[in-house]
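Chain A, query sequence.
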Amino acid sequence: PAIHRAYTSALLLVALLVGCTSLTARCFSWVSWSPTEYQLMRDDRLRTDAFYHAIDRLAPGKTILDMGTGALALLALRCARASATHVYAVEAEPRAAVMAQETVTAAGLGERVTVFAGRSQDVELPRRVDLLVHELV
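Chain A, predicted structure.
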C-alpha cells in the first residue's frame, strides 16, 4: 500500500507538471526526461533493484517487450542478461532509440535485443510477446 501510494503520488505529480489534471494516457504520451532526471531515475537503487528482481524472476525463456526503453535500454539489457529468449525494445524519441541501439550493441546483446524507433502503437513486432516491461517513474 505505501509503495502504491508513492507511485500514484509520483504519477499525479508528473501529470501536474505536464499540465494534466488526471492520470490519462494522453498526459504521458510525449513526456521527455532531461539528462539529470534520467540519471536520477537510473540511479534510484530501490526502484531499479525492484525492477531487476522482478525481471530476474520472470524473464527467463520469455519474449519480452520493453516499452519506452530509453537511451540506456536498462530494462531491455537486464531482460536479455536474465535469459530472456528475445527482447523488443521500443523507444519513441529518435535520439534515445539510436543511443539505445548503440548501448545494446556495445553490450554485445544485439542478437537478443531488437531496438525499434517509434511509438509503441505504431511498431509492428515480428512475434507475440510473453511479458511487457515498462517504467514511467
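The longest strand covers residues 86-91. Helices lie at 2-17, 25-28, 35-42, 45-58, 74-81, 94-106.
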